[in-house]
Amino acid sequence: MNELDHPAARDPQASSVPHGLSSLLEALRASAAERDRQGGHAAQEKQWIAEAGLLTIAVPREFGGTGAAWPKVYETIRSIARVDSALAHLLGFQCLQVVSVDVWGNPAQRARYLRGTVESRWWWGNAVNPLDTRLVASATADGGFRLNGQKGFCSGTRGSQMMTVSAHDPQTGKPIFAVIPTTRDGITVNEDWDPIGQRQTDSGSVSFANVKVEAEEVLHRSETPPTPHATLRTLVSQLVLTNLFVGIAQGALEEARQYVNKNGRPWITSGVDKATDDPYLIARFGEMRLQTVSAEALAERAARALDDAWNKGAELNAEERGRVALATSEAKILAHRAALEVSQNLFDACGARATHAPLALDRFWRNARVHTLHDPLDYRVRDVGRYALSGTLPDVSLYT
């Protein structure tokens, strides 16, 4: 079997696939608490996502994909994050790897890998982190490379069929970027992901031992300055995280609402018969909703800005790109804060009995806490403050 035709991993014990997004969300929510406790690989749930047709939501229509506008892509990610932010992370990073091929690949690579994603329903893994230089790429005479070393935080790689990879080229001092099948000889996907949250994102490390990269698999060598359009990939990534945060806040608020309506008891000095009539509790829910809807509004605003910029293609200029980066930072700051604060305030709203471990209501805060550490919030506030004070737009970087 050709390694590019390697079939998607399937669970022979998997139950019937939920039909439609709403059924998928119900199925994910039903098992989210138990899967959070277990951690590990969500093979059945990933199969459901594939069967729902979501793997190709960001693949351009010219290659047979859905080609959804960015606001729709992020709305989908956000809706899954409300019930299971780990699975939403996997779908978001699936979209990110598709974008990586789309902006870095030549026409032949785009056709090969994007059409292959549609036809073979590939899950994509991520081993791209140019700051991690432990993976070394040694050039070969045929224009390819040999990879040796390790990468960490390789989200989605376990159970994937293809992966994007960045590696340090010591000859040039720059990273190389490539696409390779996850099953290629010399690749070991390590099951060493065991954080306090986001426990099913398959974000362990990957080891490479003399792994061959063919010349035609090399996507980008950073030898020429990328176009403003190509650098939108970074903002695609940051808005994945932003919408995960918003979804976590929305999910925590909904769980709190359901819990209080079903189990809430009024405080002994409240003077009311029902918890839902307590003015302090009402005020707390009001504040939680304000944080959530504000974060969602800025996330949607940033997604529209990204979509407009994306559709300009090669005509996009640096200033226009900078304004999308600003909108993205503004949205991410608010979403970061909303995810942490709403998931924490859930317990103040629900009370001591809500800490019953089997409920796993703490998963919202744990998932938010793990994800909000991806890059320091202070530097985003700095960028927004610079623009507010002097009109300076954010510089292009690995995070902005």
Please specify the SSE layout and strand pairing.
Blueprint: H1 20-38, H2 43-51, H3 70-83, H4 85-104, H5 107-120, E1 124-127, E2 136-139, E3 145-151, E4 162-169, E5 174-181, E6 187-189, E7 206-213, E8 218-220, H6 232-263, H7 279-312, H8 318-350, H9 363-371, H10 377-390
Parallel strand pairs: 1-4
Antiparallel strand pairs: 2-3, 3-7, 4-5, 5-8, 6-7
Helix pairs in contact: 3-4, 3-6, 3-7, 4-6, 6-7, 6-8, 6-9, 7-8, 8-9, 8-10
Domain Acyl-CoA dehydrogenase C-terminal: 243-375
Subcellular location: Cytoplasm
Domain Acyl-CoA oxidase/dehydrogenase middle: 139-211
Task: Offer a concise description of the structure.
This protein has helices at 20-38, 43-51, 70-83, 85-104, 107-120, 232-263, 279-312, 318-350, 363-371, 377-390; strands at residues 124-127, 136-139, 145-151, 162-169, 174-181, 187-189, 206-213, 218-220. The chain is of the alpha+beta class and 400 residues long.
